Amino acid sequence: MKVIFTCFALFFSFLTLAQRKLLNQLELNRIIINTPDSTIFAETLNSKKKIKIYDSKWYYWYKSDKIRITRGGYDGRLLSGDYKQFYHNHNLQSKGKFKKGLKSGRWKIWFANGELKEATYWRKGYKSGRFVQFDSTGFLRKKGKYKADKFNGKIYTYETDGSFQVTNESVKKRSKKVVNVKPQKKDKKNIFQTLFQRKNKPEQLNSKEIN
C-alpha cells in the first residue's frame, strides 16, 4: 500500500513540474540577435501583465531586433530567462539570467580569448554579493562585495608586482579607508579558497561556479 501511495505521489509531483515547465515555456519567447561582434541568445516575456517599474532600475527589453536598456521604463518585450552572448570565435562573451527585465542571479563576462573578466551576483536589478575581476591574462585584479550596486566592505585591488590595496567601503556612511600592502608571495590556490568560501547566504561565489 505504501509503495502504491509513493508511486502516485511521485507521479503527481512529476506532472506538476511538467505543467510548470510548459507554462514557463509558453510565457517566454526565444530570440536570436546578430551584432557586428557577437551573437545573442535570449528569452523575452510574452505576458501582457502589468509589471511594477522602479525609476532607479535599468530595464532590458527587446524591440525591432535590438536589445535596449532604459532606466525606469520600457517599450517592448522585457528580457526574462536565460541570456547568452557569444563572440564570433564562438567563445562566451557573457552569460546570466533576467527576471522581468532586470538582471538576476549569477552573471559572468569573458574576454575574447576565453579568460574570465568578471563574475558578479545580481538581485532585483542591482549588483549584490561577492564579485571578482580579472585582466585578460587571468590575473586577479579586484575582489570584494556589492550592496545595492555599490561597493560594500573591504575591496581588494591587486597589482602584478604582488602588492595590493585594501579599501574599506560603507554603503550607509560612504566612508573610505585605504590600506596599502607591500608585495608578498601569495599562493593563488589559497586566494581562490578564501574568495569562494561558502557562507549561509544565497549570493556567494565558490570555486565550482568559477569553472
Observed structural traits:
18% helix; 47% strand; 3 helices; alpha+beta; Histone H3 K4-specific methyltransferase SET7/9 N-terminal domain; 15-stranded antiparallel sheet; single chain
* Euclidean distance between termini CA atoms: 46 Å
Our count of helices gives 3
Shape: flat
The major pleated sheet works out as:
15 strands, antiparallel
Total of domains:
2
Q: Please name the fourth-level CATH homologous superfamily of the largest domain.
A: Histone H3 K4-specific methyltransferase SET7/9 N-terminal domain
Report the average pLDDT across residues.
81
Helix fraction bin: 10-25%
Low-confidence stretches: 7-26, 198-209
Which fold does the CATH topology of the largest domain refer to?
Answer: Histone H3 K4-specific methyltransferase SET7/9 N-terminal domain
Q: Nearest-angstrom radius of gyration?
A: 21 Å
**Beta-strand segment tally:** 15
CATH class of the largest domain: Mainly Beta
Structural class: alpha+beta
Hey, roughly how much beta strand do the residues contain? over 45%
> Which CATH-level-2 architecture of the largest domain?
Single Sheet
